[in-house]
Amino acid sequence: MKLHYVCADDFKEEIFIKPLPPTHLYVYFQFITISEESSFEHSHLAPRSLGEVLSRFQVDELHLTLTEGQWKHNKWGYPILDAAPGAELYAWFSPNVVDVDTQWRKLSATLSGLFCASLNFIDSFNTVVPQMAICPTGAIKTNQNITSRLRYATLPREIVCTENLTPWKKLLPCESSHGFSSLLNSRMMHNTNYHSIGVHVRKMCKVDNCSDINIEIKQTVALVYDYKIIDSIDWSFRKLFGQGLPGACPLSSSSKIYVDISSNETYSFKLSPSPNNVLLFKRGGSDTMLAVYDIKSYNHMMNIGVKYDTQDKLLVTIAPPLHFTRYVLGYGKEFGGIVTEITNNYWAPIDIVLLENAPWWLPIQLSSLRINGKAKSKLVKSQYYSPGRSRQKPYHLELLLQLPPKSTTTITIDFEFVFLKWQEYPPDANHGFYIGSALISANLPTARNYTSLPITGSTIDSIINASKQWYPAVFRTNGAMVSLPTPDFSMPYNVICLACTVVALAFGPLHNICTKELVLKPVGSPISLRQKLINLFKQKKD
Amino acid sequence: MAESSRMWASASFVGVLIIIGLPLWWKTTEVYRVTLPYDKISSFDTQSHAITSELTVLANDAQTAAEVAGLIENAFMDSDVLKLKITKRLLSEQLHRTLESVADEQEAVEEVGAVFDLKQHNKLYIVQRGPLFQDVWVGGERVVFFRDAKAAETIAKVLKQWVYEPSVLEGARSDTADSTRRVRFPPGPGYHVVLSVVHPRPQDLKVEFQAGDAMEDYIGSFVDELEVLHNFTLKSQWLYLLNFDFQAKEVKDGSEWGRHWAVREEKLQQLLTRLEGRAATHVSERPALNLALYVVPCDRAPLQIYQHEKKVSAPVQAFISPKWGGVVFGNPTAADCRQESPAWKPPVKLIMGTFIAQLRELLGITDKSNIEGAYLEPLRSVIPRRWEVDSLLRIRSLEQITSAERTLQSLAQLLGEISNIVINDEVGASINAAVEAIYQAGDLAIKGDLVESYRKSQTAFLAAETAFMDPSLLALLYFPDDQKYAIYIPLFLPIMFPVVLSLKNLLMWLRGKPVHKEKID
Fold first, then answer.
1. What is the ipTM of this complex?
2. CATH number corresponding to B187-363
3. Among A56, A423, B366, B424, which residue has the fewest nearby CB atoms (within 10 Å)?
4. Does the distance separating the beta carbons of B499 and A511 come in below 8 Å?
5. Is the pTM here over 0.80, yes or no?
6. Chain A nearest C-alpha distance from B246 (Å)
7. Which of B68, B205, B206, B199 is nearest to B127 (CA)?
């Protein structure tokens, strides 16, 4: 069978599977559409709906992820693409855009319709303009001011489910009928510890001197399975996705499955069927072994699986070079604080940028910033702070830190609780309020636990022998939750009813006293004239 | 003393609660509404609009001119929607001679064009030309040739059925949509034309078709001519692996295939539902005219549509869905499918021609039926005839004016029925602008300034639609009445009863009558 397509559009699908010993399994799907035209008027494999949105709002680069669950960096290492819990959207607009903020709002509203997510709640009050933490990954001319065209927002409360997956699948040329996307069965997918779907659009140079530009639309799915949930340490496609793989998408130019078998030495297992190829390569001093399956559009089902030899082995996992946690301090309903602990396990210092992004109802004061308990620290190389404004702008703090080797740095910042107006409370306000995760952007000196693709690569084979001096990564810490002072919402109605009753009760007597006269009414039968005379006589006698 | 002060107290309660309180309550709970020109809106009469069009009769002699003009005038006498301004003129000697001598009609049109301006909208020239094979000849330009005075009846028919179509104009302003209005798209400032190439089995058949180029070449040159009416944006996309079961029946025949697949026409509409799911028409900011080329898989080719158990005989199997778009079935030939690696090169001209025919209908250009003695030059290229564009302008102007009027009238009616609707300043301004533009467009139409009238009517139509669809109208619509009463009743019932009852005493006291009857038993 042959591939038949007309334009020069290119579609590739890939799966990357990495066991995260001892208890989890990381499965990462990516679907890459590389489109020739920079305008989306006549699209071939690229989704026209997304293209229409991008060209209408003149977006240069776009990243949207919808995530449920929390990636545990200290246990699982680093994912290929990290994502903040909930919905995360950031985009660079074209230099031709005059009013970036309006376009941003329109873009998020349109995407909200396209993906059935509540992205329409993105507004100026939850949008920041990161100064140092995020860099574009695509080909954008560097001589212009890139930062001013960037907008970043997260919605940590967003719940991701099937209704987001269905429109996401519709963007794929093979939809969900053929190819790897047919594995994305929502019943199995949402039965995981962590799942994240994403759309990443960027410009890529077609040739070295970047005179021609391609558009890369990358759709990703990251899943972390828990062996406890699938009820066995041996996994197979049928166990993970509920069905076998029916073959490749007939439109894809390459359909490959990569299984990371580096952990085979410590936890020996057997892959079946045997892979087409095994790649052994070094990246930044760490060895990786990848089993590669080159999938053709088979007509029979394929079920890749793993059987472990021994099932009762305990292993201490080594934490990655950089890991972090974040939590909220304080008690009561007046003051609190956010603590971010960042650990550098490496023997050399690591430079990171930390972006703290607090909503306007959680005012953080720069004066209360403490690093390792000290107000002034030598670790801070540069800092950016943009105070929030009530109902208009979030608080935004960026720190360029140099983490000393083999140490943990604690960054503390205090906040006050704010009273909201009664209409500003979300439904189920007693559930608590989410604080978005902090961004940590680091240049890692080692590729240990590092799986991200190099910036110029788009397929997974680009990680082969991709040794560099630095390995750039952007991580998201875990989010947090605070409980704001929440009123009793039925109170105003009760007050109105009570006040009305009191007024009504008070008014009646008041009105009567003012307007009516109290007249004594004689009691008994009227006295006749004769009786009066008798009475008079009686008095005289007395 | 006591009597008068008690009465004063009572009066002050009345004063505070009824004279100050009630108006204040009324004012503060009032729904905000800008004053609207209700009288103007209610005086709209959608049946009153008419459009003037200019017609010049050019004949060899005054008698023929008068005869033809008189007959046309008579024919359009009873139509109140179209007013014809007929001018009679004699052909100049020179033009007369050239028209008699040139052999070709196209050349003759050019000769007329050299003397008269044929580019102007809403003007038609009826020119006498002796050497005609038919009574009447109609081409792509705004010129109608006729042979002699005997052709006058046919001219009147041609003008009625082909050029001016007063029945379609009536349909555009009437309450109920006529057959053409049911097919054509609702008016709008612009449309997206989206061509979706549906290819259900990309693995089995290679399709060599440049959708983008075909769009630009064919549809592009067609819609360029309609620039004065709408803005068009052309888009194309490929939809792969969209499987649809037509429930086709195999029928043996004597063709190259030795069979064809029969599909009942009723089944076809179900394809649209599948297409809608993938075509992503909802993301466009403007309404989309959908054109779909469905590539029939080899094992289902050729597909043949059956209408009432009878084959639809057409070079291209296609169907149109009113107000949605058109679908064309691309049937690969047996030879294409039996190749080692099956490949199909669609007949672009034929397919795009079918799409153009569908587009014409969807945009409101009607099919012209045969008239005896009259000859309609067939369309040689994709561009529409010039007088068809004029006809569209007339239809759309009327449709937009009447639609704007109806929208405003229903809005006014709604405002009367539902007291909770807010009319803020913006909506008010937009309603006023619509009313203003309706009057202007109506006046311009009577004057015969077609293009300006069309533009004004579009302004009116858009302003009326924005006003009607504005979300701010609904701001208070769902405020429940029972909640209001839950507050008013406990407050007002116990307070208002004593105050209202005290009015009686107060009035009696004011008239100088004793307030309390002395009770004497």
1. 0.86
2. 3.40.390
3. A423
4. yes
5. yes
6. 18
7. B68
